[in-house]
TrEMBL record:
Provenance organism: Wenjunlia vitaminophila
Protein name: Kinase
Gene Ontology biological process terms, A to Z: secondary metabolic process
Highest taxon listed in the record's lineage: Bacteria
Alphabetical keyword list: Kinase, Transferase
A Pfam short name: APH_6_hur
Region (Disordered): 208-237
Molecular function terms from GO: kinase activity; phosphotransferase activity, alcohol group as acceptor
Length: 324
């Protein structure tokens, strides 16, 4: 097999440089050597680098020493991504991609091969939502004793100062009432957290992929936390930013999924509320708590997008927040 260049996709280099500055740019430039070392240690044969790949990770299709297909993910280690291996190990393939091997300090994960180009975005919205909620039911398990995951109150507390500082900038003057409302709602939510389960943290249609063409059995079985019997589902989650907290937090990104479709629909505010109510009722989540987390996460993400220069995404997210 011809040697495959282990070069990061151009989009990855641009994105991580814009988001993380000089440290991100330096990390991206070191990817080819890091990938070469991991490939040699794990006795992998690269097939191709996925384009455009992830926003903060390089994804390489590989063959293991025995010829089994797998996926090598080399990600930037951040506070949000550091516990991805621990979450995947906890799920052990139940509703999520199976972790085969990891070197956490390198940000290197060897994963089972999924159909990387087929996500829930390929399905009609109603079917995608049905599948998405089914996967979430499998992911929401007890985090385990002495787990390493951050809690939603602590994580979102770390966003409060940054959100406030961005809202205080001259360019955000008109957005301050919306930011104040998001901060007030978040304070009310964390004052009365109703449950603590393992959350995906970045759950949307693009982070749920079709399983491989011939998935192995299980592990939806009794010895997996919350497991039952039967085959693995046809859709599996990837790229968690794991947290421990209430389910409403995880549902917030589904409320705003396919935002371009929502904004183009007749009466987008009413359509958004209908979606929120349907998701809350289907998964037995309090509507007001889901509305609150959807508002906070959209405002925080919208201000972040504006701050890093993504004006289109920022304005759309903040418009969505007003619909809530």
């Amino acid at each position: 097999m011809p040697q495959v260049p282990l070069q990061p996709p151009a989009r990855l280099v641009r994105t991580v440089s814009a988001w993380e500055g000089e440290p991100g740019q330096s990390w991206a430039h070191g990817l080819p050597e890091r990938a070469r070392r991991v490939v040699e240690r794990w006795e992998l044969t690269p097939e191709r680098v996925l384009e455009p790949g992830g926003n903060i990770s390089m994804v390489v299709l590989v063959l293991q020493a025995d010829g089994t297909p797998a996926t090598l993910k080399l990600g930037l280690v951040t506070p949000e991504t550091a516990q991805e291996p621990a979450a995947l190990a906890r799920w052990d393939g139940r509703g999520a991609v199976r972790l085969l091997r990891t070197e956490p300090d390198e940000g290197a994960l060897l994963l089972e091969r999924l159909q990387g180009e087929v996500s829930l975005r390929s399905l009609p919205e109603s079917k995608a939502m049905l599948e998405a909620t089914g996967v979430l039911r499998r992911l929401w398990v007890h985090p385990g004793d002495d787990h390493p995951f951050r809690g939603v109150p602590g994580y979102t507390g770390g966003l409060v100062d940054t959100l406030s500082a961005r809202a205080a900038q001259p360019w955000a003057a008109e957005l301050r009432p919306l930011a104040d409302e998001a901060l007030r709602v978040r304070a009310d939510l964390v004052a009365s957290e109703p449950e603590r389960v393992l959350l995906h943290g970045d759950y949307h249609h693009g982070n749920v992929l079709a399983a491989g063409p011939s998935p192995s059995r299980g592990p939806d079985r009794a010895d997996v936390p919350g497991g039952g019997s039967g085959e693995r589902p046809p859709w599996l989650a990837i790229d968690p930013k794991p947290l421990v907290g209430e389910r409403a937090y995880d549902l917030a990104w589904l409320v705003r999924d396919r935002l371009d479709t929502l904004v183009a629909s007749p009466g987008p505010a009413a359509a958004t509320r209908r979606r929120l109510h349907r998701l809350a009722d289907d998964l037995e989540v309090d509507r007001e708590r889901l509305r609150g987390w959807s508002l906070f996460r959209a405002v925080e993400a919208g201000l972040w997008s504006l701050a890093v220069g993504d004006r289109d995404a920022g304005e759309l997210l903040l418009e969505f927040a007003t619909w809530l």
